[in-house]
Amino acid sequence: MMALKMLRVCRGSILSGCKTCTVRIGREDLANGLKYFSTRINEGEPDTICEIVKYWSNRFENEGISEPVESIEHILTHVLGSKKRYSSNTVIQTMDLADAPEQRLSLDQITKLQSLCQCRMSRMPVQYIIGEWDFRDITLKLVPPVFIPRPETEILVDIALRRMAEAKNSHYIVLDIGCGSGAISLALVHSSNQIATSQIQCTSVDKSLYACELTRQNAEILGLQDKLRIVNAALRENGTIKSLNDSHPGVDFDKQQFDIIISNPPYIPTEKLMELAPEIKIYEDLRALDGGKDGLSLIKAVLRYASKALIPRGLLFMEVDPTHPEYIEFFTKKYTDLKLKFEHTYKDYCNNDRFVELSKLD
């Protein structure tokens, strides 16, 4: 029989009071046990859920990391093999951390958590650290430097779905310009499958090959690959779309017509990019954010393309900077040859003018 020894250790450096814990271990595990406890005592590392959240949220806050509590909660649930589900208006935890504050992590879990927390200390976004994020009712795989979908963009999808429901058409041909991870197009297609009121066939384009590949992976994970056509293509400032490879030689963007065009184009002025948070500047593809001198370069290009590619009474939806809706309305009135009518401006969660809707005149 394996001999047992008693190891008594004081955990006063971790707890508010000095408590002695008795641990029963086998002889062959004694060395590892001593190493484990001595490391924890020397470093003062926490090992329970409550201690970990408090310790790392304080460290993150002291280092100026945004959303310190949320950051460690997401990392911790990921390490525990659980999930903290997040979307714009709901937080659902498959494992509620508050229900098990004294649960201890294993040494392997502690090691993994420390590694991921160091990534967060380096300002890596949580979405890249855990490798996924929720957008509406789907979960997307995320890898740097592909643009991370923001919660407010869910509103853009909601607006488009609502307008499609009002029109009551049975089928929609949709173009998503600048698909990134596929958040918008996949959310649209997934929702149409769920409610079964109309079918959506979507073409998703992005000039980043990495983004196209990630969209393809997400479509396969969600089982929506048959509803999505992904094209590595670039929108030019003159309002044309050019394919960048031969993966879809049958797509003629000069002749293709769409019922709906939707886009979250780059709209941040170039000179303001360096004012962005380190998480964005260091890790995300700034080309997905750079809107040119006034932030309108790609928005104008979308308008020009939509004027040719939308069917009569087709709809264009865009996410823009709050200063842009007024200019977009002026632009469509000035250039009547575009045959675009400015329909509406929608607010984001902060009551900013964030989304615009335009229609194609007959």
Characterise the protein shown here.
- This is peptide chain release factor N(5)-glutamine methyltransferase.
- Keywords: Methyltransferase, S-adenosyl-L-methionine, Transferase.
- Its EC number is 2.1.1.297.
- The chain has 11 helices and 14 strands.
- It has 362 residues and is of the alpha/beta class.
- It folds into 3 domains: 1-44; 46-122, no CATH class; 144-360, Rossmann fold.
- The model is unreliable at 1-25, 33-42 and 86-94 (pLDDT under 50).
- It has helices at residues 30-43, 49-62, 68-79, 107-121, 126-130, 153-167, 183-195, 209-222, 278-283, 297-309, 324-334; strands at residues 4-10, 20-26, 84-86, 91-93, 132-135, 138-141, 171-177, 199-206, 228-235, 241-243, 258-263, 310-319, 340-347, 353-360.
- The protein has an 8-stranded mixed sheet with strand order 10-9-8-7-11-12-14-13, sandwiched between helices. A two-stranded antiparallel ribbon has the order 1-2. Strands 3-4 form a two-stranded antiparallel ribbon.
- Strand 3 (84-86) and strand 4 form a beta hairpin.
